[in-house]
Specification:
The complex is a heterodimer of chains A (418) and B (256). Chain A is of the alpha/beta class. Chain A has three domains: 150 residues, Glutamyl-tRNA reductase, N-terminal domain (Beta Polymerase, domain 2, 2-Layer Sandwich), CATH 3.30.460; 144 residues, NAD(P)-binding Rossmann-like Domain (Rossmann fold); 88 residues, no CATH class. Chain A has a six-stranded parallel beta sheet. In chain A, α11 links the parallel β8 and β9. In chain A, α4 crosses α12 and α7 crosses α8. The two termini of chain A are 27 Å apart. In chain A, 43% of the residues are buried. Chain B folds into two domains: 118 residues; 138 residues, no CATH class. In chain B, α4 packs antiparallel against α5. The longest helix of chain B is centred in the middle third of the chain and has 36 residues. Chain B is flat, with a radius of gyration of 19 Å. Classes of the chains: A alpha/beta (418), B mainly alpha (256). At the A-B interface, α7 and α12 of A face α5, α6 and α8 of B.
Amino acid sequence: MRLALAGVSHHRAPLELRERVAVDLETAGGLARELAAAAGPAHEAVVLSTCNRTELYLAGEDGGLAEHADRALFSLAGSGAEALAPAAYRLADESAALHLFRVAAGLDSMVPGEGEILGQVRDAFEAGSPGPLLGRTFRMALRAGRRARVETAIGESPSSVPAAAAALSEQVFEGLAGRSVVLVGAGRTSELTARNLRSRGARIAVVANRTLERAEQLAASFGARAITIDELAGALGEADVVVSSTSAPGIVLTPEALSPALRARRGRPVLIVDLAVPRDVDPALASIDGCFVYDVDALEGVVAATLEGRRSEAVQAERIVNEEAERFRAWRASLAVVPAIASLRAKAEEIRSAELARMENRLPEAERDVVDTVTAQIVNKLLHLPTVRMKEAAVTADGLLYADVVRHLFGLGEEEEA
Amino acid sequence: MAELLVWPTVIAYGEAALVYAGELRGHARYGRLGIWGVRVGWLAQTGLLTAQALSAEGFPWGTWAGALNLLSWLVVSGYLVWGCRPRYRLVGLVLMPLAAGLVVLAWAGGGTALDANGDGVALATHAGLMLAGLASFTLAAAVAALYVFEERRLKRRDTRVLRLRLPSLEALDRLAARAVLAGLVLLSAGIVVGLVWLHVNGLDAAMTVAVLIWALYALALVVRWEAGVRGRRFARLLLAGLVLVVAVLPLTHFAA
């Protein structure tokens, strides 16, 4: 059994090319089943398609498997598929597995360690048509991905400004569940940050905007209260986090406006995220006790530092992926001696059964079971060590030699040849 | 022989302190080595204290040096409750050098020796409770120090604030308050035991200071609840409180 991979990814294919071969999960599952069921070299197939890559993993007989994977990928692009050729890559066996392990660990992603890819690999695996080889390969890839995230900090840090704002909120507050967020400005940036905060349990309480209509639209999507900017001062008292992103030319939040709200909070902190350029928040607010102000520059600095951290964690994650790839290689190599082991055990069982049958009439009924059990145990104990040693040798260059020696010593397969 | 356990204790606590200092400088991967240093040191010190308890007639930590030995063990025990969580590990950056220093001081003053004789059960209970209370205040101060550090990073908008993840400010603030509350309960019990069982006549300097310390920390909690003195101000109050305790308590209790 061989493994073949054909695919395109963000490394060499621009978005225009990637979108031509991108498919949703249902289509990917259908395509995988179709590829595995059709006559041809492929017996197993999984199609992984995300916004950054489309990859076809096939397992089957050696004859033309790679070309088959290629053809399947190009057929996805339809007419003009030749444009795909320079961007497409093909990998086989251990290289294909290593690539999948890196993908699952987030090491091949645009942002190293991004969180979604592991789930996407799992979904593709579950929707596809894997057999013994692809099944094992994907399970090991998922394990590599999980280990990379658990044993390193590659996925811990935020990779965007809205995510950084949400993560900073969690440095101030003990969890965001039930925390009140006030949005000042109803633009796209505010919305993205609010969604990020809400995904961590925060409650979007108020949306304040210059025009009430736009505030109401956004507030409706969060179940929040809409107000105009003029009413903002009254709403700030309930805010744990304030996200400001208006297009106002001057300062919107001043120390004077916020002071009564801060007094009402009786020492509880407040985080103010200023995403506007020019800034909405007076920098003097940062000097007030319990008031933390982050503007776009500060947030981008945090993101840059965390991405740098991800890259250093990626070195650790690569080590984990290589360990898993080594385990995969050992497993694949052990498959080479499996037929010899199976033949040896079958031969031993055949001899044991024949001898038992010969003795059947000479043994009392009560003793037959005992003899059957004892002889089975003897055979198992005798064959245990050779089996283990052959599997150990399989991962070295001597693996096939051992298998041949066993075949020769025990005359395995000679009856069939005769 | 058991006295030799002092050195593994000091070395392990010192190792933990160094590793934590490294973690602060961005080598987060070694943080686990730090917590193992604490565990090993704590086990060694527990062995030492057990040997002292078995060999002594009565309470072996009645002297200033013995008290420091027991206090450092109580502080590290309290730290181990939270310190095993990665985000709280750095509380040890304050505590482990302190613990190592206390053990060395205790050794220098003969507080780690075997066969030390002491008084009876009443004094043991009184001193044990008082020391446990002081250990709680020390823990509270260490947590407060971490609060001040984290608050400063957030205020300064340190770009590494999410790379070296510490507990949230709110969590640190609450933990410090809980440690103070626990310390107050223990200290109250220690004072009551001292008054009832030790048949103290009159208010001497040691008792006055103990009551003042109790009042100081009780006041810190009252202003926290009633006047909203939280966060940085509360943390600074706890740090100042510990400095005061460290400066005054030895003079009144062990000067003689």
